[in-house]
Amino acid sequence: MSPRRRDRPIRSRLVGLLLVPLFSLIVLWVVTAGVTIGDSLSLRTYDTLWSTLRRPADTLIVDLQAERLTTARYLGSHQTSDRDVMVLQRQRTDKTREKVRALALSDRSRSATTAAMRRRVDEMLTGLGRIDEIRTEIDERLASRLRAIETYNLVSDAIYRMHHSLALIDDIPLYQQSRVVISLGYANELLTREQALEAGAAASGGLTDEERKLFTQLVGNRRFLIDQALPELDAGLRQLHVNLITTPLYQRLRLQEEQIISAPKLSARTQRVWQSTSDDLAESFQKTQTEAAALLAQRAAPIADAILRRAVLAGGFGLLAVIASILISLRVGGRLARELAGLRQAALDLANKRLPELLAKLKRGDDVDVAVEAPPIRTTGGTAEIQDVGRAFSTVQETAVEAAVGQARLQRGVSQVFLNLARRSQTLLHRQRAQLHGMQRHTTDPDMLEELFRLDHLTTRMRRHAEGLIILSGNAPGRAWRKPVPMYDVVRGAAAEVEDYARVNVLPMEDHGLDGSAVADVIHLIAELIENATAFSPPRTSVLVRGEVVGMGFAVEIEDRGLGMTKERLAELNERLADPPEFDIADTERMGLFVVARLAARRDIRVTLRLSPYGGTTAIVLIPSTLMVGPKDPDLARLVSGEVTPEDIILASLKRGPQENENTGEEDRK
Amino acid sequence: MTERMQDQWLDEEAGPVVPAYALTRGRVRPSSQEIDLVAIVTATGGPTPVSLGPEQWMILSLCARAASLADIAAAIDLPLGVVRVLVGDLHEQGLVQVRPPANVARFPTEKLLGEVINGLRAL
Question: Which of A46, A171, A272, A430 matches a 20 to 30 Å C-alpha distance to A129?
């Protein structure tokens, strides 16, 4: 029962079945976990960007605004005191700038930024470099006030562009709000530019035309920005800024701005008022910005928490779910495979071992207890289909065993009927022979004796057939001897049972005896062979029977003068004799041969057929020495030596008397 | 009809191993001469051929001293007809002598016996 090449065990099929969903599940988990982990990583990135770029940049902007203001004032007045203030502010700016540069170029910042962000950062750093150029120009009085202010403005713009590019967060409303807050911060920047312009103009005596144009632009832009930004803010953030705008301070600022735009020259008082108003407002603006940033940070916190929670959920619980699915799959699959393996083993055991053993047992004629020999097939586990198959196998087994037992019982019954009939015939024939022997003794008339001899012969042949039936039923023929019987008598007795016994010539043989228990079997065996020999040779030829002691026991040769047979046929018959096939009731033709083979097997006798040099067939019967008794055996010696004394004669006569009486008595009983 | 069912026969009960008819191969008459029931058989003591069967050996040894056919038959437990054929075979081979029984005339007559009785009574 080797599996075909394409057959695979159920285990691998189950693995194949479970592999696809498990694989999909794992892929899904990896993707989900990857996304959430990516989110939490981007959260970290946001944090890094905030601490390494945006917060330092905010500080720098404040410093730059201050430097721009002091520079404008100095360029307006060219007074040493203003210059000192400017230089002091420059030093402060440089410190902040160095810090910003160092942080922006740090590995943390570099690794957290994308290529687009990095471009903005680099732009800002380049802008920072230009501060030194403009300072030199200012110091050497090469730069006009306007140019200086515009240069500072460009640097600020670069910083704000960077700010915008970095304001990335995984929450769209928050992202929008933070961008709006940055825009409002830019509005503040514009206000400080206005301050710078005005401060320069105040020191020098008035705005130039170009300055005025710029101032007008700045005012317009700032107002536009604030007007644009405010509706976009949500309630909390808007309130902060609305509070700022609705202050009288802001209203005053607006009025003053318009005055500055319209009046070519401002009074010293107006200038002072503008300065304080704008300073206060810029301060409030800055404060509002800080508050807004804090508010945003406060809002971002739950989002960060949510992202982290999601990462834990998707990663952790997802992993748990994957592990649980794998474990459950393995468990269920393993159990199913085990159940099927158990069922398979039971079925194979039934087909290959138990049923054949049971049939062999029945064939031998042993008694079989169905409950013991065919217990129901046990299946493990609780799968309904497997249980059903197991039950079906049990039923099949039960039916098969019952059929086999029934068949065997029927066969045994038939055989018992044959045996009974044969035994009855044997008993009657035995009595008939006893009576015939008595009659043979009492007659002196040769003609009468001849008739009796013929009757005796017929009876003997009938007995042989009855014995043949008994042997076929697997039993022993009824005759038995306690003492050894001379082989010569055995062979002559066998010859006498054959139809054509007159043609059989038994040559005298050595005085060896055959064990009494085997006599009936050997007589029958040799009779069958002699019968064959007479049947397969022409009527006028004789059949020669010889016997002699050989190394392994005693050999009897039965030689006919027939036509013999082909070598193939001879080989086939010899094979049948050596290994008797199962008896087939239909094959009556070979019944004799079957009886010979069965008797030979029972007594360990070897029967071989071979071609005789005369053309016929010789059957050689080799009786093992275990069944033979040598001529020295005292029981045998007395019979064959011929040393019979007169006392023996008298004893024999005496012994015969009551025997005959018994025979008569038996007749009376019938 | 109740029959005694018997399916085992031991030794003598099983009957002779060699049936009587087989000893003579069916012959019922001696080949040479008719031998009387009371004929006296005596072995000649001549050389015995090896082809003799055991029964003939027994006959020969029984008639080492003279024995009648009936005696021999009784001794070897064989029908008389069979012994007659076997003795005939031996005779043919010159191994035994068969003496015919004494003449009937030599037996005392009824008259003589009556006289003997009378004589005895007279005593």
Answer: A46
